[in-house]
Design goal:
Layout (H helix, E strand, L loop, with lengths): L2 E4 L5 H11 L10 H9 L7 E8 L2 E9 L2 H11 L3 H14 L7 E9 L8 H15 L4 E7 L3 H9 L3 E2 L8 E7 L1
Parallel strand pairs: 4-5
Antiparallel strand pairs: 1-2, 2-3, 3-4, 5-7, 6-7
Helix pairs in contact: 1-2, 3-4
């Protein structure tokens, strides 16, 4: 049985390693180790982010990072990082994810469960915990993007209540949403 806890700075290298192993073809898959760790570090301790890990027998076997307010998180992240490229990227992403001051939108950025720990409920538990935290923080809607060719992830998110946002199969990434 996996236990959830808040991600700590010391977890970031393991999280980045899991990202490189399981999300190679995904978003940010081509970042070098240092930049990938800096990306994950922006979620740890951010007032607008959620960073959770799942442990089984003392080993970190899964994680989720997301935001409860994408716009605020991106502003904080750009101030915490030194890279102008990263700051510009985060600002551009935030402008696509926010719809205005009246609606707080959060984003599930990454959810990974190591292969040996899959199909035991950890991914579902991480996703539900994230949605509960976002709801408590006043977030109105959550979004995420899944690779079009990742049918297993699409099925997973549908099974836990997320719905496709549009049906543009010409895109590499498909958007999903969850009203809170």
């Amino acid at each position: 049985m996996a236990m959830l806890r808040v991600m700590e700075p010391g977890d970031v290298p393991v999280v980045a390693s899991l990202h490189r192993r399981y999300l190679r073809r995904g978003f940010l898959g081509d970042l070098d180790g240092r930049r990938l760790e800096r990306h994950y570090q922006t979620f740890v301790g951010s007032p607008a982010a959620v960073a959770l890990v799942g442990e089984c027998r003392g080993a970190l076997v899964g994680y989720l990072v997301g935001t409860v307010d994408e716009f605020t998180h991106c502003r904080v992240a750009s101030l915490r990082t030194r890279s102008r490229l990263t700051a510009g990227f985060e600002r551009a992403r935030a402008s696509r994810q926010t719809t205005g001051p009246a609606e707080r939108v959060g984003v599930l950025h990454h959810l990974v469960v190591a292969q040996g720990a899959q199909r035991r409920g950890l991914g579902r538990t991480l996703a539900y915990a994230f949605a509960d935290i976002a709801r408590t923080e006043g977030t109105h809607r959550l979004t995420l993007e899944v690779r079009q060719d990742n049918q297993a992830a699409q099925d997973f998110y549908r099974d836990i209540g997320w719905t496709p946002c549009g049906d543009d199969r010409s895109r590499r990434w498909l958007a999903y949403g969850l009203q809170l």
